[in-house]
Design brief:
The protein starts with a strand and ends in an 8-residue tail after the last helix. A seven-stranded mixed sheet has the order 17-18-16-15-21-22-23. It has two domains: 3-240, Nucleotidyltransferase, domain 5 (2-Layer Sandwich), CATH 3.30.420.40; 248-427 and 459-494, 2-Layer Sandwich (Nucleotidyltransferase, domain 5). The protein has 16 helices and 23 strands. The longest helix has 27 residues, at 367-393. It has 494 residues and is α+β, with helices and mostly antiparallel strands. Helices cover 33% and strands 23% of the residues.
């Protein structure tokens, strides 16, 4: 028996799954890492810790399954997207902590840009979320970085590039991650010279862009490395595209939503990119070696699961597991609305200066009302994106595959189905992000024959349908009013 290892390096932790040919998880391990907030609106990770934790979880997952590294046929990698790392090409050491996708330090820089031409080439709404302005900041603010970059001494990458470079020594990225940098032309599949000039990025720092599922381009972990065996790295996908792949959304029109730190709703649009007129992003969904890419429309919601974590941080809930019980203890929010814009608002609003807001508080408001309003806010934000997708594609999404830690909350799924008026399908294997990386790697090396083999493996654990007795239209209208109150709040921030 042989297996595929999937490394899932996320915003709050790193996971490894070992996946069998039948799609079963036979071993796993997880490690959290520290979130660093050096200034208000800044978020950083230590890249060295990300790598050390990666080694730990792969080793521990093998031990959990009672397997050796030689039992692995391939390794897949998926990662938090947009997070930006700059490192020394000779020593492999980072020259600064990674700037995380949530970081807002470059908001003013983004506001100087003319958005239309950037959207036309990248499919992205200019925002501090993406890698370009983060890399520009590193080159300008870290002493000597620009000179060293121009001399070819430094390497830039999103977290996939960083981990692959440590695993195999190759400086590459896949098309899905490249499409999130705001430096990449998603139509021609190449780094864009005008964007590199706009952000003053030397070509010398850029990784080579390759397909997501590819048996050759990523290299192999060597026998001299921590695994002690030569294992090909054969699949890389940004985390949200990996979840789309893991949910087997291979056909145009199929959609998934991942509820993690934020929520990211993607609909497969097929071989042609669909431009959005309603605040969505056009992005590369995946590409297999020797094939044309597939594209997606994406609604990036910055804060959903992180809002639940915040309730725990400020002691409004004991732990996330208490959230459902507390929220079910009341029939309504009693007029309370939560807009969890801790990192600004993403799709379809794109307001980097919005901030978190709670409205409708009275003396009778309890933590149970705030808990329920927080769950409803996740549903409302998803409804915003689904409405934008329907407007862009002309088709309503009536079935949404969901994944991520928050969807274990049945009340959230029930509310989501009713608020968005669509069927919610929760998979039997919840870690679909890691599963997508495993699928991409396994397909590349022939472990799975084709996409049909993966479709046959997909299992739905539970389906949630809208409650037709509940009228959410009035609450949704008030939600939009609440969003308006939260917008453009952080005007005094840098």
């Amino acid at each position: 028996m042989q297996y595929v290892a999937a490394i899932d390096q996320g915003t709050t932790g790193t996971r490894c799954l070992l996946v069998s040919h039948g799609g079963a998880v036979v071993g796993q391990a997880y490690e959290t890492h520290e979130q660093q907030y050096p200034k208000p609106g800044w978020v950083e990770h230590d890249p060295t810790v990300l790598w050390e934790n990666t080694k730990t979880v792969v080793t521990d997952a093998l031990a959990d399954a009672g397997l050796a590294a030689t039992d692995l046929v391939a390794i897949g990698v998926t990662n938090q997207r947009e997070t930006t790392v700059l490192w020394d090409g000779a020593t492999g050491e980072p020259i600064h902590d990674a700037i995380v996708w949530q970081d807002r330090r470059t908001t003013e820089r983004i506001e100087q840009l003319e958005p239309e031409w950037i959207r036309d080439r990248t499919g992205l709404e200019p925002d501090a979320y993406f890698s370009a302005s983060k890399l520009e900041w590193l080159l300008n603010e870290v002493e000597g970085a620009r000179e060293r970059a121009e001399a070819g001494e430094l390497r830039f990458g999103t977290v996939d590039s960083w981990l692959v470079s440590k695993l195999t020594g190759e400086h590459v990225t896949d098309v899905t991650n490249a499409s999130r940098t705001m430096l990449f032309d998603i139509h021609d599949l190449r780094w864009d010279g005008d964007l590199l000039a706009e952000f003053d990025v030397p070509r010398e720092v850029l990784p080579t862009v390759v397909p997501s599922s590819d048996p050759e381009s990523y290299g192999a972990a060597s026998e001299d490395g921590f695994l002690g065996a030569e294992i090909p790295v054969a699949g890389v996908l940004g985390d949200q595209q990996a979840a789309l792949f893991g949910q087997t959304c291979f056909e145009a029109g199929s959609a998934k939503n991942t509820y993690g730190t934020g929520s990211f709703l993607l609909v497969n649009t097929g071989p042609e990119p669909v431009e959005s007129d309603h605040g969505l992003l056009t992005t590369v969904a995946f590409q297999r070696a020797g094939e044309e890419p597939r594209y997606a429309l994406e609604g990036s919601i910055f804060t959903t699961g992180a809002a639940i974590e915040w309730l725990e941080d400020v002691s409004l809930v004991e732990n996330p597991a208490e959230m459902e019980t507390l929220a079910r203890s009341v029939d309504s929010t009693d007029g309370v609305y939560v807009v969890p814009a801790f990192s600004g608002l993403g799709a379809p609003h794109w307001d980097g200066r919005a901030r978190g807001t709670i409205l409708g508080l009275t003396r009778g408001t309890g933590r149970e009302h705030i808990a329920r309003a927080t769950l409803e806010s996740i549903g409302f934000q998803t409804h915003d994106v689904l409405a934008a997708m329907a407007a862009d594609t002309g088709e309503n999404i009536d079935r949404l595959r969901v994944d991520g830690g928050a969807v274990q909350n049945d009340l959230l799924c029930e509310l989501q189905a009713t608020i968005a008026d669509c069927t919610i399908a929760r998979p039997a294997v919840d870690e679909t992000t890691a599963l997508g990386a495993a699928y991409a790697a396994g397909l590349a090396v022939g472990y799975w024959e084709d996409l049909d083999a993966l479709r046959e493996q997909h299992r739905t654990e539970r389906v949630f349908r809208p409650d037709e007795t509940v009228d959410m239209d009035g609450r949704y209208a008030r939600w939009n009013e609440a969003v308006d109150r939260a917008r453009d709040w952080a005007r005094e921030e840098n």
